Amino acid sequence: MPPAPSPDTALKAILPLIAQGDAYSAHQKTRTFASRYTKAKQYDVAIQVLFQSARELLKAGQPGSGTDLGGMLLDAYEAKGETLTDESRGRLTQLIALTGPEGAWRDTLISKSVAWTAKAGECPAGDPDLHQYIGELFYKESDFPRAESHLVSSGTRDSALLLAQLLFEWYQSASSTDSSLDPGLFALRGTIPYLTTTNILAARTLLDKFISLLVVAKPDILIHKEPVAIGEGADRDEIWATNNHTLNFLQLAVRICQRGDSDAGAAREAKQAWIRLCGRYTGGVSGANTPGAKVLVAGGDYTREAVISLSHLYFNIQPPRSSSVNPLGDMMSALFGGSAPSAPRM
Q1: What are the pLDDT digits (tens) for 304-341?
Q2: Taking a C-beta distance cutoff of 8 angstroms, is the pair 131, 117 a contact?
Q3: 98 contacts: CB under 8 Å, gap ≥ 6
Q4: Is residue 32 within 8 Å of residue 71, measured between CB atoms?
Q5: What is the pTM of this model?
């Protein structure tokens, strides 16, 4: 019986070249060996050769070559039909960590990695654990906007907690030069995207954490020192009553949306509660389209589009004819693109 295929032969020819500083030759040899193994359907060998060579090239300060081999690694994953596991994800996170922030190499590898997990995993937006890892990476680099998008896409409880911490730190930094800045704007940035993906748990986790951090920094934001009970029986819940309209609206919105997916009777009650809430805080479920409507919540057009989208998503309230064809898409584009006028200004 012939010996099992092994990456050792290839790596013995490649790794010394990297150690000698001949990154170009090492890169070319890796491509040659990997192509040969892939054509022979020896995918596991190709994966090991590509991963180890890419890792050592990145350690040697060769992000271009390392990223190229990282892309070939993902191609080998595709050819094999590799499943998303801790091991397959771990190879990608190691390479992403080693690539470094300079240039566009890491962005390329991140984009390709997320795209592969979207195909190989169960989440169309990409693997939640990978998004969380990338979000943490950007957070540690204080790149808050990019961290934000990945933490929202992750949607895990840990991601929601970290996003709350990020948004609070972002608020503190921004308010140091503008004391009039509304902290509710930052809570909106995390809560609304989670609600629009029906991730009630993440929305609630983020908002509770954000408010708890804010209360420590600004105790006078609370109207009452203890949480206020709302609802009755099985619907009984608690919120923090604050002197900030946006935070009060968000807390109530999360709890009403949570009830929107209940049985028919509870859903009808939740719909009426939503209509009353929007009438009180945002000028109505049409997003303050009524002339003279009083709007208490911050966020301007961003909040208006959010109300329209959430009204339709949770309560089947049709958007007004004058609204965007795709208000949810416009809202998310504004949030993560940063250029549309509907994005909350930080």
Answers
A1: 999 999 999 999 998 877 655 454 455 445 444 443 33
A2: no
A3: 55, 58, 59, 66
A4: no
A5: 0.88
